[in-house]
């Protein structure tokens, strides 16, 4: 009975420590994702082409082993927007942990017409 109690306590302690560590990792990843989105938005701020209407696009990209953005696709029918996004984002350096590299990211961006 005593061994069973000890095993139970060890299991509970291990489980609690695992969950508490995951929350920290999740918070760090969430913070890095927000920083990455901010970086992408800042790189796309200088859009000068006039649009007839607002355009919402999804940008799919990875961060390569060098820490550079590589655009995989831009979900838009507007060719000028696709070209602008690829030109501005491809091979731009970002600071991310090595564990976050080679992951696929999808960032929604909205271009506002003036």
Write the layout of secondary structure elements.
Blueprint: H1 2-43, E1 55-63, E2 69-74, H2 79-89, E3 104-111
Residue-averaged pLDDT? 80
- State the CATH topology: Fusion Protein Consisting Of Minor Coat Protein, Glycine Rich Linker, Tola, And A His Tag, Chain: A, Domain 2
Order of helices and strands: HEEHE
Give the number of DSSP strands: 3
Main β-sheet description:
3 strands, antiparallel
Q: Quick one: CATH class?
A: Alpha Beta
**Based on helices, strands and strand pairing, what is the structural class?**
alpha+beta
Q: How many angstroms does the end-to-end distance come to?
A: 74 Å
Work out the helix count. Answer: 2
Query: How many distinct domains?
Result: 1
- CATH-level-2 architecture: 2-Layer Sandwich
For the largest sheet, list the strands in their spatial order.
2-1-3
Work out the radius of gyration: 21 Å
Strand content: 15-25%
Observed structural traits:
114 residues; Fusion Protein Consisting Of Minor Coat Protein, Glycine Rich Linker, Tola, And A His Tag, Chain: A, Domain 2; 3-stranded antiparallel β-sheet; 20% strand; elongated
């Amino acid at each position: 009975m005593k061994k069973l109690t000890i095993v139970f306590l060890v299991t509970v302690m291990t489980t609690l420590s695992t969950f508490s560590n995951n929350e920290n990792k999740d918070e760090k990843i969430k913070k890095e994702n927000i920083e990455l989105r901010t970086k992408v938005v800042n790189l796309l701020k200088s859009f000068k082409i006039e649009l007839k209407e607002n355009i919402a696009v999804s940008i799919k990209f990875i961060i390569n082993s060098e820490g550079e953005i590589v655009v995989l696709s831009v979900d838009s029918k507007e060719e000028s927007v696709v070209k602008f996004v690829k030109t501005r984002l491809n091979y731009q350096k970002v600071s991310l942990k090595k564990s976050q590299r080679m992951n696929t990211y999808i960032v929604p961006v909205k271009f506002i017409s003036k």
